[in-house]
Design a protein that fits this description.
Helices cover 86% and strands 0% of the residues. By secondary structure, it is mostly helical. Helix 1 packs antiparallel against helix 2 and helix 1 runs antiparallel to helix 4 (92-145).
């Protein structure tokens, strides 16, 4: 669960370093962006391995969304890897574009994940609430239909 934070955080920091590099033009921000992208790629490899393990244990209805999530993450990681390679070959502008596309794809992936997870959790909560209401109503119905005795008033 925590491993996903490494690539998300590293690539977010890389985006900021790219902006600072554009503003300042200093080599230190360019190097920091490259290091952040490399850390993100390593973190994505770790997150992918645990994600694949989790995905193999998921029930069939959720497997499709898990597959989509994995494919989108592979695409984002490939774009960041391309960005790093381009930067190493002194094609910084192209590297920034590839990184921005990778970041956008990662955000789409996160959106899909949160929307589906939120929808599922909302459905699950509503289902639990409905069951609780039904159980409460059943108890109330039984209480109302029970024979009334007035022994206490005799």
């Amino acid at each position: 669960m925590v491993l996903k934070d490494v690539p998300i955080g590293a690539w977010t920091v890389a985006m900021f370093f790219d902006v600072f590099d554009l503003i300042d033009g200093s080599r230190k921000f360019a190097l920091a962006a490259e290091a952040s992208i490399a850390i993100g790629i390593l973190g994505a490899a770790g997150a992918a391995s645990t994600g694949l393990t989790d995905w193999s244990d998921v029930d069939p209805p959720a497997r499709k969304m898990g597959l989509l999530h994995g494919v989108l993450n592979i695409g984002a990681t490939a774009l960041f890897t391309t960005s790093l390679l381009m930067r190493r070959k002194k094609a910084r502008a192209g590297g920034r574009v590839a990184a921005a596309l990778g970041y956008a794809l990662m955000m789409v992936c996160l959106y899909c994940l949160f929307v589906t997870d939120s929808a599922f959790l909302l459905w699950q909560r509503r289902a639990r609430t409905s069951v609780a209401r039904f159980q409460k109503a059943s108890w109330l119905t039984e209480a109302l239909n029970a024979p009334i005795t007035l022994r206490a008033f005799r």
